[in-house]
């Protein structure tokens, strides 16, 4: 199937073309950037929204994703899902299980679920994930869910490719939120305390609220009215644009396995999107993401250029004896190679 | 403190100089590659051995590390430890806790333990980890332990920087070894079933043995004699160089919290090192690692060169409107920038 055929297939909404396109991009096969260039012209028009869902293993992200799919389908929207697990093959097994569980959803032609391997993601997993999300958008899905397990740097980068990011926590999330790095808490636009019927849900919610208050220079942040178990159960979180056009991230309570609080999550996502539109952040962030994508593509192109320059490897092979016996360092040789590649052949 | 002062301080074995050197390298501050160049000339002479310890969260790697420190100290050897957690800030909390637990060990001047953050590791966490290990070797530690949590791609890359890699598993490692990606099992030189007094230890050990047998084209791999609970308890694993100079990875049983099986692990590490020496792999792998280091340094240098070329960002800024409205793609602009940087200024 040529790139042109794949592009046509995407336009005709053929699932086989989509699957093929994703494999091409995921494995960075010949022509994948040409495909993405074609696709790029079709983006940002249909009002597709990208939603990131992240959190520690066991937070119930997959169940939450399933429930969101149901809600969006009930609204008549098509949903594409990229599930990424960069952390561990140990949890990879769980993801695969979830995927099988979700398969009932994927019998619906307006739902497409793809698990992504992390191997060979030259130029970064976040870039590849965003590129797969591009394909899902170009295919015509109105909602693209990006699910990542774990909340390390890689996952944060992946989550940042979405317009709205949901951080799912559960009462048993280890030692509470103290163990969360600052960066993790800052990425989320919406906090979800899932499995909120379990002991400790109320305490976790308070901790998140206090943490958000501290971040915003207001240690109390109207926490009081939300302390009641009822508020936790009902999942009534505030989310309004506060003074200065800032977004005040709501802390919602859900029991995804029963569907509790999921409608509220969808409503919060709608409010967040509206906030992004009205504040001008939607356009600004999109530009920023496109600039980042260009830098990533540049880094990849540079990498490929150096890899294809046979003189680099030749010089390295010639110098390796001296590096091994300590006469030269890897850094000296790297500088020498760069110098040669730069001055050698300006085409 | 100038680079020269730090180098002198390392030679005089001043802990403050070591701490300073590590911070410099970890944060890639000005002159860090010059420091590493200095250090490089001193490496590979004192017989320092690098040992990687990896495995899923909860496998007891830190306790195992603690026990190894004790064993090596009893042999009169100095021990440097780099603990890396690239997976998640959720387990990051645990690592920090472990570090405090280990502090008793670090009152000993011949033990140095460093937890490494994963932020800002341009050129890859594995490279930075190996560079920190270089500093520990240059400081004169005879054993350098590299501990990583999780077994994703990043952790594998980190583990590969060591000469011997230990994969620690526990009976409750999720769904058993089926969930392990092929690459994970292949990196280990020594397998440790830790917490081997727990239910399921025997079964896990059998699974690992069978998997190793399949890998070596021998589905049975003399599994039978090791099935007995006794063998598991005692941690008697074979590890001998089999035909063709191949290493036959032993599967050991430990209860690190009680110190059981740790002496056997040290013995297996000794046998593995001897195998590497006698088979010529030690020299070959060292050359391979140095080649990889040079490539990593080159990638970093290229990255920096492009980042410092103001024309790249200028052109990106000029093209961003067209990228945003779909007339150009990020990939077209990346190609254009590369072209300009390459042809523009061959110095």
What does this structure look like?
2 copies of one chain form a homodimer. Chain A has helices spanning 3-11, 15-26, 32-40, 61-74, 89-101, 103-106, 125-138, 153-159, 182-187, 201-215, 229-234, 262-279, 281-308, 310-324, 330-344; strands spanning 49-54, 79-84, 111-116, 143-148, 164-169, 190-193, 241-242, 246-247, 251-253. The first copy, chain A, is α/β, with parallel strands linked by helices. In chain A, helix 1 packs parallel to helix 3, helix 2 (15-26) runs antiparallel to helix 7 and helix 14 (310-324) runs antiparallel to helix 15 (330-344). Chain A starts with a helix and ends with a helix.
> What series of H and E elements makes up the topology of chain A?
HHHEHEHHEHEHEHEHHEEEHHHH
Largest sheet, strands/sense/barrel of chain A: 7 strands, parallel
Structural domain tally of chain A:
3
Helix content of chain A: 40-55%
Oligomer: homodimer
Question: How many DSSP-defined strands of chain A?
Answer: 9
Q: How widely separated are the two ends of chain A?
A: 33 Å
List keywords for this structure.
two-stranded antiparallel sheet; 53% helix; Rossmann fold; 12% strand; 347 residues; seven-stranded parallel beta sheet; alpha/beta; globular; homodimer; 3 domains
Strand-helix topology:
Two copies of one chain form a homodimer.
Chain A: H1 3-11, H2 15-26, H3 32-40, E1 49-54, H4 61-74, E2 79-84, H5 89-101, H6 103-106, E3 111-116, H7 125-138, E4 143-148, H8 153-159, E5 164-169, H9 182-187, E6 190-193, H10 201-215, H11 229-234, E7 241-242, E8 246-247, E9 251-253, H12 262-279, H13 281-308, H14 310-324, H15 330-344
Parallel strand pairs in A: 1-4, 1-5, 2-3, 2-4, 5-6, 6-9
Antiparallel strand pairs in A: 7-8
Helix pairs in contact in A: 1-2, 1-3, 2-7, 7-8, 14-15
